[in-house]
Structures are given as C-alpha cells and as structure tokens.
Amino acid sequence: MSEQALTRRGRPGYDQRAILEVAVAAFIEFGYDATSMGVLATRLALSKSAIYHHFTSKDELLELALAEALDGLEGVLTEEKDEVGPAIDRLARVLRGAVRVLTDRLPYVTLLLRVRGNTDVERSALSRRRAFDRAVTALVTEARDEGSLRGDIDPRVVTRLLFGMVNSIAEWYRPEGPEDAAQLANDVLAVALDGLRVSAQE
Amino acid sequence: MSEQALTRRGRPGYDQRAILEVAVAAFIEFGYDATSMGVLATRLALSKSAIYHHFTSKDELLELALAEALDGLEGVLTEEKDEVGPAIDRLARVLRGAVRVLTDRLPYVTLLLRVRGNTDVERSALSRRRAFDRAVTALVTEARDEGSLRGDIDPRVVTRLLFGMVNSIAEWYRPEGPEDAAQLANDVLAVALDGLRVSAQE
C-alpha cells in the first residue's frame, strides 16, 4: 500500500522510500527542527539537490512520513466500516490493527506520536489523528450501548486509556526483540477487554 | 513531603519552590537543553545571580524536579512495603497511587517521562525509574503466583502496558478539566483489573 504512494523515480542508490527512512530516523534522533536538509544529505552521502530531486522540501518528507502512520491507522478503520456484528468485536479488531500498524511502521508511528502541531503539516496530521480517535470513541460508545462494554467509564476516557496503552508500545517495542507483534496484540486485548484479574468463576 | 526537601531560603518574591515551578514549566515548553539560565532569569524577572542564590546550576533544578516525581512514585511503593494481604490488592493500590502522584505532581512527572538519559542527572533518574518498574513487575509476578492475576502474559509486558496507560494520562489530564483524579484512578483500575467487557455472568 505504501509502495503505491512512494514510487521509485529512477535515481540510482536511493529511491524515495530509502531517503524517507533515513530522514525519519534522523527526525526521531535529533528532532525535526534540528535536522536540516544538509544533515540529511551528509547522512545519505547525497547532494542536497539529489534529495530535492525526490522531495520538494523537508516539510514534504515529514508529510509523507506522517501519512505512512495515518494511512495505516485509517486503513484499519476502513476495513471495519462495512463489517457487521457486535461493536465490541469491531473495536477488538481495530485495537489489534492499531498494534499491527505500530509494530509494522514503528518509526512512522513514533514520529506521529511526537508531533505537537508546530507547523501546518503537523496540525493537519493531528487533525487526522483526532478524527481517528473520534471514530474509535464512537465505536466504544456503540459497544457500550449494545451492552457489551461497561457503562461506568466515559467513552472518551476509555479511548484515551486504550491508546495510551497501545501507543506506549512504541517506546520499547523492537522488531528484533523477544516480543512477537501478534502476541503483543493479544496481550493488549486481554488486558483491555478481560482485565488482569482472575475472577472467582474461572 | 516535598516541602521538607525544598525550604524557603528567605529571598523575597520567589522561594526555591516557586523558581523550580517556573523552571519546570520552561523545560517542558522549550526543552531542557534550549532553556538557559538567562531565559529563566527573564521569565522570573530575577537576575541570574538571584537564581544561583537558590540553585547551584540548571542541572540541580532538573535534579530536584525529577526527584519530586521519583520521590512520589517511590513513596507509593514504600507505603505498600510492609502491607500484608493479596499481592493483587497491593498492586491495585500502587496503580492508584501512581495515578495520584501523576495528577498531584503533573509537571514533574511530565518532565520525568521526557527524560532520555543525556546527562548524569537524567541517567540517574532513569535508573530510579527502572528500579520502580522492577518493583512493580515483582508485585505483578507475586499476584500471578498467588493465582489472582492471569498467567498468560509476561509480567514485564504487564507492567509496561499498565504504566503505558497510566503515563499517557500526563498527555491530556488537566487539573481544571472535567476528569476527577480519583475517578480517573478508578477508571484505570477498572480497565486494568476487570477489563472493559461486560461478561456473560453479569
């Protein structure tokens, strides 16, 4: 899917995606403001004009990087849009999908989580993120109204706590680490939906 | 408790704590590196030497700020150290206490959560934070071994997910906002221990 958006423009050595990956790693390490196109050129061993062959500006690099994360998250919602069945099951699949997007696109999601709204690109990304959160909150509300989700917590707080848990995974998850991404999604769902306590009935 | 550590040294206008509060707000807004003692002096309408009357360095300001958060969290563990009773109940009280420390000392905890280990002061704070996490993981393991906590999730992952949820509250909680801190602690415990799902038995 992301391969469709970022096409190879025929520059030998680095294609658009490879440059984007190096840029995102630098943005995460040094911060977006502190990473100049000159720094990126040095890291890539390319001239600045070679980078500008692929991207019109540093802002465009950030925009494409944030879109990688947001397209992934929005795609998870789109997959559920026409599904029927209990809202709690759709919510579970959205949570599982969000963990998958985070582990699959870790640097892009990490960058998204650091955005504070300092530029138009950042504000636009935050606006898309808020729309995603509102859609999840609507799903939480639907699951509550159908009687499958507890009704004593504000759905907006539920969404914030759920994504607090999911997003925190970006701080410690490493693809080469001992935690399997699918197992991690199972763990999140187990805590969020069924809780940690072993109930007396079991 | 924090009042014991930070005593008023008799300077009119600002005492140590008031200077620390302004410094922490600046560290959060601009970042620690980008906040010079000159910037702080301007914000406080004090001379730099007036600040140095209270603090030997910017590093000491950071150290005292991080200690506010860490003393609070460690205090929660100390309260439980000599308690008996099921480990799951002690874990629940530690979680509740951690939410209380976060809401009571919001700027200090926010600063702690941003620390990346760039200086000795930061590395020392991270080391204390890791010791706290290890103690919580030991409590999770104890609750699992007593049979009150589900055994199918690695206790280290449990601790990370729990504190991912708790720490994320710092991103949106505002003391003047609609969410009551005690209610928020109840919400966290409800999600973490009993889960969101309304089970068939209820």
UniProtKB/TrEMBL annotation, chains A, B:
Keyword entries, A-Z: DNA-binding, Transcription, Transcription regulation
One Pfam family named in its UniProt record: TetR_C_24
Organism domain of life: Bacteria
A GO term for molecular function: transcription cis-regulatory region binding
DNA-binding region: 36-55
HTH tetR-type domain location: 13-73
Family matches, as InterPro entries: Homeodomain-like_sf (IPR009057), HTH-type_TetR-like_transc_reg (IPR050109), HTH_TetR (IPR001647), KstR2_TetR_C (IPR041490), Tet_transcr_reg_TetR-rel_C_sf (IPR036271)
Name of this protein: TetR/AcrR family transcriptional regulator
Organism from which the protein derives: Cryobacterium algoritolerans
